[in-house]
Amino acid sequence: MPFYIVQFLTGLASAASLFLVASGLSIIFGVTRIVNFAHGAFYMLGAYVAFTLTDRFSGALGFWGGIVVAALIIAAVGVLVEMALLRRIYHSPELFQLLATFGLTLMVEDLVVLIWGPSELLGRRAPGFKGAVDFFGQNIPSYDLFLIALGPIVLGILWLLFQRTRWGVLVRAATQDRDMVAALGVNQKWLFTSVFAVGVFLAALGGALQIPRDAVHHAMDLRIIVDVFVVVVIGGLGSIIGAFVAAVLVSELNAFGILIFPKISIILVFLVMAAVLIVRPWGLFGKQEGPARRTPGLTVNPWRTLTSGEQLAATAALIIAAALPLFSGNYALTIGSEIPRWRACR
Amino acid sequence: MQRRHFLGASLAIALAGLTNTAMAQSEIKIGEINSYSLLPAFTEPYRKGWQLAVEEINASGGINGKKLVVVSKDDGGKPADAQTAANELVSSENVAMLAGTFLSNIGLAVSDFANQKKVFFLAAEPLTDAITWAKGNRYTFRLRPSNYMQAAMLAEAAAKLPAKRWATIAPNYEYGQSAVAVFKKLMSEKRPDIQWVDEQWPPFGKIDAGPVVQALAQANPEAILNVTFGADLVKFVREGNTRGLFKDRTVVSFLTGEPEYLDPLKEETPEGWIVTGYPWYSIKTPEHDAFLKAYQAKYNDYPRLGSIVGYQTIKSAAAILAKANSTDPEKLIAATEGLSVASPFGEITFRKIDHQSTLGAFVGKTALKDGKGVMVDAVYKKGSDYLPSDAEVEKLRPKE
Amino acid sequence: MKLSVQDLNSHYGPAHILFDIALEVGDGEVVALLGRNGAGKSTTFRSIIGLVEQRSGRIVFEGKDVSHQPTHAIVSRGLGYVPEERRIFTELTVEENLEVGRQPRRPNAPHWTREKLFALFPNLGEMRNRPGGRMSGGEQQMLTIARTLMGNPSLVLLDEPSEGLSPKIVEQMVDAILIMKKEGVSIVVSEQNLHFAKLISDRAYIIERGRICFGGTMAELDARPDIRDAHLSL
């Protein structure tokens, strides 16, 4: 019996970081309607920057300060990204947004290898939470207990933030009807930016808090983003409580799944997701989207027909490309065929 | 502006094509594929290794007077991308042979491609036994000691342990499954008295280490076989240390002594694990000294096992091409079967019977020294000593 | 002059909706914008506060040209907007809906507090913590007006406030608009209901197919039954 309790607690500890990252994604989506694929990249950057800061500054203050400062730094980076990139694509089709944020993820992956090198990095253990606590003969890491406590605390803080502050009321209003919020004199730009900053802060904090138990490496982002999407889908997009419940559900499924089906534990989670979606298509705590409230006249056409000059250039380009095999070697052909592929894939 | 830009680009491509055709007469190309973006911890030293080899080969006159060129592609860790890359290398680049790959499932995918398209393929790293045995084909050769060979080296030491209750943990894909299966088989032959009490199969790169460690501890094994590596290994070791999993238990572990995987563990390095690996700091042979000196001089960094694999892959490929003096796949196969080449670990031979090289590995124990993980009591095990008999191999390999 | 609109043209994509709209609102005036369904009343309002992106023309509010400003900037100058569809935040309570509308006090406009608005719309005061989604149409109409008043506007664009309401609620609405007028808020109210407009307005414009085809006092409109019959459905 103690084993199952410890296994349950271990699951809860894994849920904490997952919840932080998922709630950030959910909040950002709720207001900006951007499916932020780069969310995992911010999680990873949080871990890397926290690694550097906690490595550089010793002591308990160095560690805990490093974690928080890392999350703040990445939140600031998030603000820059929002202002430079996302503001331009809020009205674009989802696919554009997904591509843009996915491209960002790939850039960040290359960037961290350039800055921090290709090897896995081992972060410091948390001062005061280095060992394990004996629980009827089972060991449970004290840091896990810290994470277990942290999850509900963050949930509570977020709840207060959204229910008890003007900012929270505006965010919830904008989640439902952005244009009306603007029509009441609220500058959405800064509202969106601040929401994005909070979401990124949560992701980076989730990443930074992993350094005592995880390896910091360049593929952390894709590893977490899949789980996070599953959590957000199960919990319901835009719901923070949903993110919390789903994070616990997914983590416990992992923790107990490996006992029963060690080889297919990963599939179990997706099976549950499918089941939830059949019963509740908007997730456990999600609400059915009302008919999209958009103000007529505010839709932007992302496509523009080419001018005649541009059409001519495009035609010429096509002819040259088509004629390439006539006069160039294999190498040119490969490069030539790589160009459109590259544009499409990376 | 836009149009001029494009015309310029087209012209550049066309010119590049012309010069390329002119140069093609005097060079030999090897097409190389690896998971550069997915596994930089291995592939960066690997790339440095093969670049050093290319430099050395061309400095000493190339291949029968022709310049050696390696065209390298990233498969991103996906078998389908690896096959696409292989196809491009063969059809667009006219490479004489394919080489490389790391992950076992990708190695198998490229091997399959090589068999279908009748292209010579020298697999560098993928460890699965299938690549030379169950799914072996006449176009594919493999450099690194296979799972069977490493398992045999480890089982030799593991069988001497008193432990009877064993648990296993391995990444849930071709390599992990193959390693566990062959280790179990070899151990059970040597020690019919042992019991397998638990097995954990975390998804590759996605281990949820806490629950996995807890589950292993609950099974209360006396010894554990580990096949995880990279980030999974780091998480497994950390959770294992915190939860006391390794206390009073022996761990036998594939690859953990390789600097790629041992170095990141730093002060968390568990002591006394029996591992295969590469203790570059304690190898004192003239062949290795020469390699080490050249590598450190060029890169101002120490080599990882990936450096050896990259270096030896291209060195072997060059020897094959030189001996065949042709790029015809059949001549390359004929040249490779039974070919002996020098390596930093001593002379190795590509076996005719199953196309496996006899490159060996070091077996030793992990230890913590000045806050860093090292391999101690390391002994080089020749690959040729850890392969099954020819009669058995004949049975394992499909008839052609 | 509170608001002056000249040469206002608007498009939805390729469709040209408004043609050279011109209208003026004086300080403390209530002006009706009359017209049938689809005549362009709502588009006129949306264009004035910048919710229609493709628009041209000159919009001067309190002596400032706001034609090129974004919606939130125009609104936070004190130009309030009450949409026809009400657009209540259904997840938010009555008090929270009012909070979204809250803006700092303005020297040249009446100041509204929650308590003052609850006095104006007593129904709302009884359901302060009820989510907007669980209110009747009439209550929602009151809330949407109250929400805009929380911004202390000096001018309110009121889009069809009587639409779909019971006669009893319409009466309350008339009272509320007259109180707003008394407090000093200038109002432009769009209506199909001429009777309702007459009760509250000083002047009227008639819009038909995106063009203003009449402008004058209510008395002048009364004197032209031909115009009334041609452009308004009674």
What this model shows, in words?
The complex is a heterotrimer of chains A (346), B (400) and C (234). By secondary structure, chain A is mainly α. Chain A has one domain. Chain A contains 13 helices and 4 strands. Chain A has helices at residues 2-32, 39-56, 59-84, 94-116, 142-164, 166-176, 178-183, 188-208, 220-235, 240-260, 265-279, 308-327, 330-345, and strands spanning 121-122, 132-135, 138-141, 215-216. In chain A, strands 1-4 form a two-stranded antiparallel sheet. Chain A has a two-stranded antiparallel ribbon with strand order 2-3. In chain A, helix 2 (39-56) crosses helix 8 (188-208). Mean pLDDT of chain A is 87; it is low at 299-303 and 340-346. Chain B has 400 residues and is of the alpha/beta class. A 7-stranded mixed beta sheet of chain B has the order 7-6-8-9-10-13-14, with helices on both faces. In chain B, helix 3 packs parallel to helix 4, helix 7 packs across helix 8 (231-242) and helix 11 (305-324) crosses helix 12. Chain B is globular. Chain C has 234 residues and is α/β, with parallel strands linked by helices. Helix content of chain C is 35%, strand content 27%. Chain C contains 10 helices and 10 strands. Chain C has helices at 41-48, 71-75, 94-101, 114-120, 122-125, 137-149, 167-183, 194-200, 218-222, 225-231; strands at 3-12, 15-25, 30-34, 55-61, 64-65, 79-82, 155-159, 186-191, 203-208, 211-217. In chain C, the strands form 2 sheets. Chain C has a 6-stranded mixed beta sheet, with helices on both faces. In chain C, strand 7 (155-159), helix 7 and strand 8 form a beta-alpha-beta unit. The two termini of chain C are 31 Å apart. Chains in contact: A-B, A-C. At the A-B interface, helix 1, helix 4, strand 1, strand 3 and helix 10 of A face helix 1, helix 2, helix 7 and helix 8 of B.
Which SSEs are present, and which pair or pack?
The complex is a heterotrimer of chains A (346), B (400) and C (234).
Chain A: H1 2-32, H2 39-56, H3 59-84, H4 94-116, E1 121-122, E2 132-135, E3 138-141, H5 142-164, H6 166-176, H7 178-183, H8 188-208, E4 215-216, H9 220-235, H10 240-260, H11 265-279, H12 308-327, H13 330-345
Chain B: H1 2-23, E1 27-34, H2 40-59, E2 67-74, H3 79-91, E3 97-100, H4 104-117, E4 121-123, E5 140-142, H5 147-158, E6 165-169, H6 174-190, E7 195-200, H7 209-219, E8 223-226, H8 231-242, E9 250-257, H9 259-262, E10 274-277, H10 286-299, H11 305-324, H12 329-336, E11 340-341, E12 348-349, E13 361-369, E14 372-381, H13 390-396
Parallel strand pairs in B: 1-2, 1-3, 3-4, 4-5, 6-7, 6-8, 8-9, 9-10
Antiparallel strand pairs in B: 10-13, 11-12, 13-14
Helix pairs in contact in B: 2-11, 3-4, 5-6, 7-8, 11-12
Chain C: E1 3-12, E2 15-25, E3 30-34, H1 41-48, E4 55-61, E5 64-65, H2 71-75, E6 79-82, H3 94-101, H4 114-120, H5 122-125, H6 137-149, E7 155-159, H7 167-183, E8 186-191, H8 194-200, E9 203-208, E10 211-217, H9 218-222, H10 225-231
Parallel strand pairs in C: 3-8, 3-9, 6-7, 7-8
Antiparallel strand pairs in C: 1-2, 1-4, 4-5, 9-10
Helix pairs in contact in C: 3-6
